[in-house]
Amino acid sequence: MASSLRLPAEWEPQAGVIIAWPHADTDWGPRLARIERAYVGLAAAIARFEPLVVCVADAKVRARATTLLADAGVDAGRLRCVEVPYDDTWLRDSGPLTLAGAGRFQLLDFRFTGWGGKYEGSRDDALVETLHARGLFGSAERRRIDWALEGGAIEVDGRGSLLTTWRCLHQRHPQMSRAEMDALLRDAFAVERVLWLEHGYLEGDDTDAHIDTLARYAPGDAIVLQTCDDAADPHHAELGRMREEIAALRTPDGRPYRLHELPWARAIVDGGRRLAASYANYLVVDGGVVMPAYGDPSDAAAARVIAAAHPGREIVAVDARELIWQNGSVHCLTMQLPAGVLAT
């Protein structure tokens, strides 16, 4: 493909967002009614701004999803359902990473291993191939890359820089050196440089420190990062070191990034297990940002930080307390698709 292809930044124009609807055979089964309510809120927020592609496991799941969304007032004209098998609903990690340029598209189809073999993921690994074969992406090319990578593990600025964490990719590929992984990422995503963070983690996150729970690029050489101001919290020191790392990063022309620091939500514990309540796990859509809220006093402050980082966009908060029960939040469940890639 032409070297002009690149992975657009999330704030660039989109054709829509793709999600997968929860059902009884996914890990959401024990709390299905509760998670469906949360999904309706998420889907309704996205559909306010742009089309929504909904993966459904079968006709029964399709009927359930469309009924719930219709009852919530979601415009049916904004929805497109596609029947396809999947193991779970984390489309950020099993969905396509789409390069775009000069009217051409390439779907990067990395190997999905259930976050380093933690969970079964064979159907999720086949998801991009199946959707591509069914014509969802028109004339886009699919490029299979037999190397484990999840979309939540990388963050790009659309201008040649990629941000990731050593903890995650080293766990996936302990036999590879950083230089080897650096070269592979630069080739796959057509970026000029890879920036690695050594620090940063969240309890309740089983992705081994995906970058999209910790730090996000924003327009104008900015980075939005999750901080912790509670000295008694076990995250305080580690996120403080991450902040120091990010503050030391430089743009390609040698300037420091502008930092937007997200507040810290109080601990959310379920059955004795701390859940990963990150405000960094938001989704940018055309004209808006869909952000996770946790019923916390810091929700409003987080919305102000995100609004400052993404000026001119409406900030819509969705209740993410049910979502984090399965260790992810808004961004983890969604994958944006660049403008023009969807077949009409």
From TrEMBL:
List the Gene Ontology MF annotations in alphabetical order: agmatine deiminase activity; protein-arginine deiminase activity
Record keyword Isomerase present:
no
Hydrolase keyword on record: yes
Record keywords: Hydrolase
Pfam families associated with the record? PAD_porph
Membrane-crossing ranges are: none
One biological process term in Gene Ontology? putrescine biosynthetic process
Q: Which domain of life is it from?
A: Bacteria
Record protein name field: Agmatine/peptidylarginine deiminase
Q: Which organism is it from?
A: Dokdonella fugitiva
What taxonomic ancestry is recorded?
Answer: Bacteria, Pseudomonadati, Pseudomonadota, Gammaproteobacteria, Lysobacterales
